[in-house]
Amino acid sequence: MRRKPTSRHGFSLAELLVVLVIAGVLAAVGVSMIGNRGSAATRAVLDELEGTLAGAHQFAVATGSDVLVATHGEWSATNPLILAYDNATLSAATIISNGRTRSESFRVAVVGQGLQREHMHAGIVTNANAAWWTTATAGLEDITTVLPFTDSALGFQNILSDATKNLFQGGSTDNSIRISGTNKRFTSTFWIQIVSLRNGQPIPGGPVGLVVGQANGGTIYKFYNPGVMGGGQGKWRRI
Fold this sequence. Notes:
Blueprint: H1 13-63, E1 67-72, E2 82-87, H2 92-98, E3 101-102, E4 108-111, E5 114-117, E6 122-124, H3 131-136, E7 175-179, E8 190-198, E9 201-202, E10 208-213, E11 220-225, E12 237-238
Antiparallel strand pairs: 1-2, 1-7, 2-3, 4-5, 6-8, 8-9, 8-10, 10-11, 11-12
């Protein structure tokens, strides 16, 4: 009499190892994709900020008049974040409403029942969401420990510790800086912080960026850190 073949139950060690390897690969690809999206978005916002500030500077050069760069708003549909510039004879409120250049990428649009930003994977830090920067830079190189922030002769020391120098104050506050039409230089120091986002929140150790302008200077300094996701070293560099 032939015996019925016994059915196998469970998985062999080799099969389990294959499943674990596949899961690991998928996880690595997922982390890499998140990092790439955050990196691309952060770099895009950095470029747009630099472009608008450079446009304001060129306007001062072309007209020989003082130019006011104004910001307003927050990450909300009712009070969108705006960056604009125009002749400094106009008020900040007027420039924000009818500015020569307005960075629409910082606006928020209502989509269905939720909010959707044009840059879903990067955001600008305002004083109202200042904790974003602390969260995003966790595990990254401290930018104040690298050049040019460590050279007192260059005037970068302690810039970032002064929240009043954040160009994007947030909330309902209008904020502005001026570019002199006479010497074509910024009349005050300012900085802008950019962080990568996931589901509207900063990614710990994700890509981040920084824009700095100094009083009595005409240069726009732009810094980028790729973060530590996907094997990044978390080191700052000027771009």
